[in-house]
Amino acid sequence: MIKLNINKKIYELDIDPNMPLLWALRDVIGLVGTKYGCGVAQCGACVVHLNGEAVRSCVTKVSRAAEQQVVTIEGLSADNDHPLQKAWLELDVSQCGYCQAGQIMSAAVLLKENKNPTDKDIDNAMEGNICRCGTYMRIHKAIHLAAKMQNKGSK
Amino acid sequence: MEKVPGKKFFIQHPKLTIITMVVVTVFGLSASGLSRENEVADAKNDNISQADRIASVAAFEKVYKVLMSPRCMNCHPAGDVPLQGDDSHLHTMSPVRGRDGKGVYAMKCSNCHQPTNTPGVNTPPGNPKWALPPADMKMVFEGKSARELALQIMDYNRNGHKNKTQLIEHARDTLVKAGWNMGEGRKPPPMPYNEFVAAWDEWINKGGIAPGK
Questions:
Q1: How far apart are CA B165 and CA B69, in angstroms?
Q2: What is the CATH number for A92?
Q3: Has this prediction a pTM greater than 0.90?
Q4: Integer Cα distance of B47 and B11 in angstroms
């Protein structure tokens, strides 16, 4: 049995310890906000937080995540009111939307560690998240806006 | 002793001057000796025989081939982005070194590089210690001649503050050893691991001599 703590909820699953966390999230638990993109840690669509770090769940075995703190896009905020989620809506960032859960989860780690990121900081943090629609400029703007919201204590 | 106006101190006090010079010289040599405890070897040390010098340089030629292979050099780049693949191209996604060598923000090494290799071709190789050297001591291999690299490794202030014992141990480090197990589709270094360790030990134990160029 593998014991997973996902969004502060405990799941005890009878699964292979080598199963990628993404499979457990989507196919076993039913949390489908996290997306499958490439399967080899190249695109960032599957980013979730493992003990606060933006890991790629497609290559992270459930054995690594066992009894650790996992947060998915569904658990990022109580009411979809994380500054990034609000900024994303305000600036209408998404186009097809497929990569956006991973983008937001990566950006959340950036804003946790850097309250006032420059464009260069955003590049360094977000280079690993690919958007086929090319929404990068809006992503940059939304991260700056979310940083302002966060600094004003808006949530 | 009477002071003579206009005459310099060492002319007025010849004995005191000589004593001072001796004391300063002895202290200076002692300090120099202490600092050498942390050096791997003194390339100018005349105690090393000519035979050992030749053997040491020959061993480093083997070591150099391994250190400059993609499996070692890719994580010792000249810039702040690691290299990738058997052709040592810049790592896709441009992850950056960060202060501790473990990446930054959402682009930390261990976000993709797991504790073990991920199965399949073009998947991230893994090791629990995956990292570049830290920003304050980059320990660059890329672009270095054999002589430059040997001198850098022998220099306590440029080799990650490793003394001789720690350098010998470094060849046994699990991340170094992982170079020979980098996952599917990656060419290993040009000689077996045990042969590399033997050459590494011989190079250091016989004086850590740098090749002429």
A1: 24
A2: 1.10.150.120
A3: no
A4: 40
